[in-house]
Design a protein that fits this description.
alpha/beta, TIM Barrel, Rossmann fold, 2 domains, six-stranded mixed sheet, 19% strand
Length: 468
């Protein structure tokens, strides 16, 4: 049986996602005497075992005790393993030959069921730990410490941060159901992004409590749709409690209460919230007083062409489009010039789906093509645009695509201004889809404090006047 099959069985048997950390800080134990550390750890194991989905001893605190500490660690792992899977928090990572020695040490000598590893040396450094499906690995992906942004959040040339690349690689490398990820609770938006990239993997999610992570934010962002796939390690909060057994039960019950709540939707959840906030941060959405083509003054201005200058946000937007596109049947993306060209290209690169585009003006020389790119008449194109107001530009694009022999059934945009485009398209048999409605975004920005309440109110009044 694979490691994560055993872990899932334990989670169901105890109705728990609580991972009890065994971190013998000298101030917690009151001593650095190995025998007292042993007694402290064994007592904590016995007190919390009924509700522990797993135990996680931190190797560093035992190694700091010298040779005797190594023996205490082995005994602690053996005692904890009688109740639940044991994850050794060691963060190993080295070339393959050295990794093999580390794997023997962790699994054969110490007897741990799983270990935390660094991905920095690549797949061959992980392979010795992954060969036996019964032995598990949690790969560092987006850790809970403030400095994680220095490298883990570094943007890649192809778009998106490094930690998302790690998540996608881990999902591909998990061939024996024994590879998971360490994703901290201190960055719920990153947690949601990694869940999107690795929908089936188990996460070890540290950082709740003293590091600032909050269960009510982390669980909705990271737990799988089946209510599993996430371990919440807690250590000092349990160890310091007057009654560790009671505190462990309380935490288990609080985790269960939160994971039983309906999953959030709309702009306020996970990666969508991050994208919504980024649209304001990078100036794609601005508030003030702007003259429109009609001569009216608007309190809001939306310019999604700016996405092309911010690869990280563009990649996040492309991922949001893909969630909508996953439900549709089509052969090619058809991006409307100009604002949607960068968006369409980002979606094509991320998804592997080919892109074409209808020209705004057909040249009277050269190929004189109205639709650029490779396609065959009879194929289905889904129209991609940045924004929808009345739908006028969509009808022009659809007509050119249809004249080229393509079928068009759906239009997908990032923001629906709710000014009539949806009903107009639906009236002509075109299904309309939007990642966000403008009102949905306004609700989110108001709740999060991203936009001043008077600006939100002014925008709502303007929208209502236009609808009337």
């Amino acid at each position: 049986m694979s490691f994560f099959s055993r872990l899932a069985d334990r989670a169901r048997a105890t109705d728990s996602l609580l991972c009890v950390g065994l971190d013998p800080h000298p101030e917690l134990v009151g001593s650095d005497d190995p025998s007292k550390v042993r007694a402290w750890a064994l007592q904590l194991i016995e007190a919390t075992a009924p509700v522990a989905c797993a135990f996680k001893p931190n190797a560093a605190f035992f190694e700091a005790l010298g040779p005797a500490g190594w023996e205490v660690l082995r005994e602690v792992i053996q005692a904890a393993g009688k109740h639940a899977p044991v994850i050794l928090d060691a963060k190993r990572g080295d070339i393959a030959s050295t990794a093999s020695a580390y794997a023997r040490s962790v699994f054969d000598k110490l007897g741990a069921d799983a270990v935390t590893l660094s991905p920095y040396l690549g797949h061959d450094s992980l392979q010795p730990f992954l060969e036996d499906p019964d032995c598990g690995v949690f790969l560092l992906c987006k850790t809970s410490n403030p400095g994680s942004k220095d490298l883990q959040a570094a943007p890649l040339a192809g778009g998106g941060p490094l930690y998302r690349r790690v998540a996608r690689l881990a999902a591909a490398w998990n061939t024996h159901d024994n590879l998971g990820l360490v994703v901290g609770a201190t960055d719920p938006s990153a947690l949601a992004a990694v869940r999107q990239d690795a929908p089936t993997l188990w996460f070890l999610t540290p950082g709740v409590g003293e590091q600032g992570g909050r269960l009510e934010q982390a669980l909705p962002a990271g737990v799988r749709s089946d209510g599993l796939g996430m371990l919440i390690p807690l250590s000092r909060g349990i160890a310091r409690a007057p009654d560790p057994a009671a505190e462990a039960r309380r935490l288990r019950d609080e985790i269960n209460r939160l994971r039983s709540l309906p999953r959030p939707s709309g702009a306020g959840s996970g990666e969508r919230a991050r994208l919504a906030d980024s649209l304001v941060d990078i100036g794609c959405v601005r508030f003030g007083e702007f003259a429109l083509k009609s001569g009216l003054l608007s309190p809001i201005y939306i310019d999604l062409r700016r996405l092309a200058s911010f690869p990280d946000v563009l990649a996040t937007a492309a991922a949001a489009y893909q969630e909508v596109l996953a439900e549709l049947m089509f052969d090619r993306l058809a991006a409307i010039p100009y604002a949607a060209m960068a968006i369409g290209a980002a979606i094509a690169l991320a998804s592997g789906r080919p892109m074409i585009y209808p020209r705004m003006e057909v040249k009277d020389h050269g190929t004189r093509r109205a639709v650029e790119g490779e396609y065959q008449p009879g194929e289905t194109a889904v129209v991609i645009d940045d924004l929808a107001t009345t739908g006028g530009s969509k009808f022009e694009a659809i007509e050119r695509l249809r004249q080229a022999g393509l079928l068009v059934n759906d239009v997908v945009v990032l923001i629906d201004r709710q000014s009539g485009a949806g009903p107009a398209l639906e009236a002509r048999g075109i299904r309309f889809h939007a990642v966000f409605t403008l009102n949905e975004l306004l609700d989110h920005w108001e709740r999060s404090g991203r936009v001043a309440p008077d600006q939100v109110a002014a925008t709502r009044r303007f929208l209502q006047s236009q609808a009337g």
